[in-house]
Design goal:
Length: 200
């Protein structure tokens, strides 16, 4: 039996940030946040040993915003090293690119493209090869509903892992089970890391 935790990285971070926004706290330093500890809060002892795949998009260089592009690439590398140390398998999928609402805008909105497709393809491919019996989907995007339906047709048990803040009711309805991460657990994983750094 193969159990894998599939994490939509940008979606995961966005949901964590929503929790901090709700209590009017600054978003954590992602290169120090205890992502592994957050999952450990809600997984059973056996589930903690499952493979954890963290999918993320690579920043696309933009000549019109060189400094910001460089910052994004540095953050990308720092986060990658941090996640590796926490035991995640990193998978680069798609790109993070700047979109402008209108010509002349100086502050772009960065959008991730391709991660949801990559996760969906990987899950289905593994299922078709008989290499996946249970998928933990750490994502709150309704675009995953079709792949969840196809996985279940192939006998794969799908568990939705979402957040107390804005859980995806559609995915809850479509999956076999759900795990909900509380806001207290989200905030606690940032505080624990700050305490460790201060003690050091």
């Amino acid at each position: 039996m193969t159990h894998i935790i599939f994490i939509d990285g940008e979606n995961f971070r966005h949901r964590i940030k929503e929790v901090f926004d709700k209590v009017k706290e600054t978003a954590p330093d992602w290169s120090a946040y205890d992502f592994a500890g957050l999952l450990d809060c809600v997984l059973t002892e056996n589930q903690k040993n499952y493979e954890r795949r963290f999918y993320r998009a690579k920043p696309k260089p933009h000549g019109d915003i060189p400094e910001l592009s460089a910052q994004l690439m540095l953050s990308y590398r720092n986060l990658g090293g941090h996640l590796n140390r926490q035991g995640f398998e990193l998978i680069t999928a798609g790109v993070l690119r700047a979109d402008y609402k209108k010509p002349g805008d100086k502050k772009p909105i960065f959008r991730e493209k391709g991660v949801d497709v990559s996760i969906s393809v990987d899950m289905l491919s593994l299922a078709c090869d008989g290499k996946l019996t249970e998928a933990f989907l750490v994502a709150s995007d309704s675009d995953y509903q079709p792949v969840v339906r196809e996985l279940k047709k192939r006998g794969v048990r799908v568990v939705y892992v979402g957040f107390e803040v804005n859980p995806n009711l559609g995915l809850i309805a479509k999956t076999d089970d759900r795990i909900i991460i509380s806001s207290k657990e989200v905030l606690g994983c940032a505080k624990q890391n700050r305490m460790k750094r201060n003690a050091a």
